[in-house]
Amino acid sequence: MVMPEKRFFIAGPKKPIEAVLTLYNGRKSKTATLIVAHGFRGSLEGGGRATLLANQVSPLLRVLRFNFSAGQMLSMQIQELKAVVNFARQEYDGDIFILGRSMGGATALLYTALHPGVKGLILWAVPGDLHKTFYNALGKLNYLKLCAGNDLLLNDERGKLLLTPQFLQEFDTYDLRSAIKAWRGALLVIHGETDEVVPLAEAKELFEAANEPKTLAVLQGADHSFTQHGSEAAKYVAKWLENALG
């Protein structure tokens, strides 16, 4: 069953941010908000998996998904997530939870290290080392091209995207392990056993560095995008949120 949605734009640091709200479908008079941040070259639809997730958890809380701007720079993504969180705090009652997928999870982790007040954090296939992740995601030749100071044009079934060397250089200014040590809320780390972009070992290292309360969910046979495991992942998230909401 597809839950009712509202589509709109949120004022961003440079331009409006496209967003969609899946309405709360539960019985409580007050609820929380789950903000979902997509991964590299992703979208608020998430290949259908983000929509599936939103429908799965809508009996528990409202779900706010949004699109990062096309530039993909990590510093800008942190600013855009901040704008979305501020919007949610102004418009909706209750606590804020954030789910970040892959690079969106790195963004969420870095945001929460700078801005306390988020109730819970869900890291979905999130890297512990961004350089290693993009070596795997872009391929050796493309990664080294960026490292050498050259622009990189990606042109495939996902469309066109121009990456500058600054895209990788920014990673050196952030420390994901320090960020997760600073996190003080409830944490769910969910990762695919056979993730080909971010090895499971990275997720386990982040998890070990995190404070309690924390939960690690490993999806057996799942790849980086949870291609065949979207429903299973959504059920894990729903159960965790149910416990976190009390």
TrEMBL record:
The keyword Hydrolase applies. One of its GO terms (molecular function) is serine-type peptidase activity. Pfam families: Hydrolase_4 (PF12146), Peptidase_S9 (PF00326). Residues 77-126 form the Serine aminopeptidase S33 domain. Keywords: Hydrolase. SUPFAM superfamilies: alpha/beta-Hydrolases. The keyword Isomerase does not apply. InterPro entries: AB_hydrolase_fold (IPR029058), Hydrolase_4 (IPR022742), Peptidase_S9_cat (IPR001375). GO terms for biological process: proteolysis. Residues 165-245 form the Peptidase S9 prolyl oligopeptidase catalytic domain. It comes from the Bacteria. Gene3D superfamilies: alpha/beta hydrolase (3.40.50.1820). This is Alpha/beta hydrolase. The lineage of its organism: Bacteria, Bacillati, Bacillota, Negativicutes, Acidaminococcales.
